[in-house]
């Protein structure tokens, strides 16, 4: 490692790092260790960043959940898994998932299912069902909701 960063330079670097976009505590900790800081320094810097509102786990989790649902169309299970990977507390995960509107969630699931179903033209109904279900579960939607959606799609295609 080149030269050791001074405390002030490391703090400025981390403030910039956190101001650029929301970060989890885990992400910041990893960055601090990568900069060569030791545990007592890391803990002190984390405290300062939290105090100065550069770091806020609830805000991070809420923005992550809302953003990944709206932008990437992820389901709750995938969002929850990713937040757990960032070592977010169960309390904040629950709070973040509550931000997702239930009606919007089900509409998104329906749109994704319909779009996938339509891309599988010419396939046997059983294959369409299996592939659509696998796709939706992989996107992080709950198996029970996915099953309901597949049943709805099946009814729609037998009616038309």
TrEMBL record:
Signal sequence range: none
All residue ranges annotated as the RecX second three-helical domain in the record: 56-97
GO biological process: regulation of DNA repair
RecX third three-helical domain boundaries: 105-148
InterPro entries: RecX_HTH_2nd, RecX_HTH_3rd, Regulatory_RecX, WH-like_DNA-bd_sf
Gene3D superfamilies for the chain: Winged helix-like DNA-binding domain superfamily/Winged helix DNA-binding domain
Gene Ontology terms: cellular component: cytoplasm
Database matches in Pfam families: RecX_HTH2 (PF02631), RecX_HTH3 (PF21981)
Entry keyword set: Cytoplasm
Localization, UniProt: Cytoplasm
Family: Belongs to the RecX family.
PANTHER family in the cross-refs: REGULATORY PROTEIN RECX FAMILY PROTEIN
Protein name in UniProt: Regulatory protein RecX
Lineage, top ranks: Bacteria, Pseudomonadati, Bacteroidota, Chitinophagia, Chitinophagales
């Amino acid at each position: 490692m080149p030269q050791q960063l001074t405390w002030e330079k490391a703090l400025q670097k981390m403030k910039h790092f956190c101001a650029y976009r929301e970060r989890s505590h885990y992400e910041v900790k990893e960055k601090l260790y990568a900069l060569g800081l030791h545990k007592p320094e890391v803990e002190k810097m984390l405290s300062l960043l939290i105090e100065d509102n550069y770091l806020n786990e609830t805000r991070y989790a809420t923005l992550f959940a809302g953003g990944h649902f709206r932008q990437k169309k992820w389901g709750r299970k995938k969002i929850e898994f990713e937040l757990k990977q960032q070592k977010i507390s169960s309390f904040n995960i629950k709070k973040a998932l509550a931000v997702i509107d239930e009606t919007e969630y089900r509409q998104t699931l329906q749109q994704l299912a319909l779009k996938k179903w339509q891309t599988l033209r010419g396939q046997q109904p059983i294959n369409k069902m299996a592939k659509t279900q696998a796709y939706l579960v992989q996107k992080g939607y709950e198996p029970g909701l996915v099953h309901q959606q597949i049943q709805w799609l099946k009814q729609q295609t037998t009616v038309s």
